[in-house]
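Hi V.,

You were right to ask for the full record rather than a summary. Here it is.
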Amino acid sequence: MELQFIFSQFLSGLTTAIFLFLIASGLSLVFGVLRVLNFAHGTFYMLGAYIAWQVVHWLSPSKEAFWPAALLAAGAIAVLGLLVERLMFRYLYDKEELYQLLFTYALVLILGDAAKIVWGTEQLSVTRPPVLEGSLRVMGTLIPEYNLFVMILGSAIAVGFWVILTRTGVGRMIRAAAMDREMLGALGANVGWLYTGVFVVSSFLAGLSGALVTPIKAIVPGMDVEIIVEAFIVVVIGGLGSFWGTFLGALIYGQVLSFGILIFPRFSIFSVFALMAVILIVRPWGLLGRPLR
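Predicted structure:
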């Protein structure tokens, strides 16, 4: 019985970890290539959740409205990311980091207020798709089928990104841009459009994460601030700009939070921050990151 309870906590932490990986991977990708810490990433996640709810509302009473809603939300946020990067963000790459941070924080305020104007401040929710409403029993523990789907999808995305980054020409260009963007530009690569593509993919992941979380969490104003703090902790633990570091950081965060609630209920959140503080002291560039030169 005790082993069953521990396994249940592990699965809970794994579900949290996969969600955090989906959102934090985009944040880490943008920092790794563009060298910009995009605080608006969490707001893209929130808008993805709101758009998914809106599409489901429009398509109701269709029972399968969730799937097109999730895809449309992710696509809409990708388009928003394209517009933001091409019309505004691209003019800030040669500016000081403070200007970039202020710009992304301004986006958080503007888009957050726009969401309140359009959708109000009440809690909204989306029901799970009918095909994933059930549960599976594994080692005596009931696992919601939707949570299992998210775990599989997140793992598939992680493997897919690894293949793209290590086995394709586009992946080699992305890694080259992360190491030496000036040299890549001197070799004739269109660095500007590479940046745009990375930012669009990052925005797509944020929107998809927001859509996928709607059957599990309530959609409320301020959820963007909460998730960006958690994503920031994940990328700091794993290493800013490190893809597998982000995955490892998400797993560590999910398990520390899950078992921290079990062992130290009042200090579960503190345990995550304490872990981040220790890693910053011992290895400031993260577990799998590399020192910035």
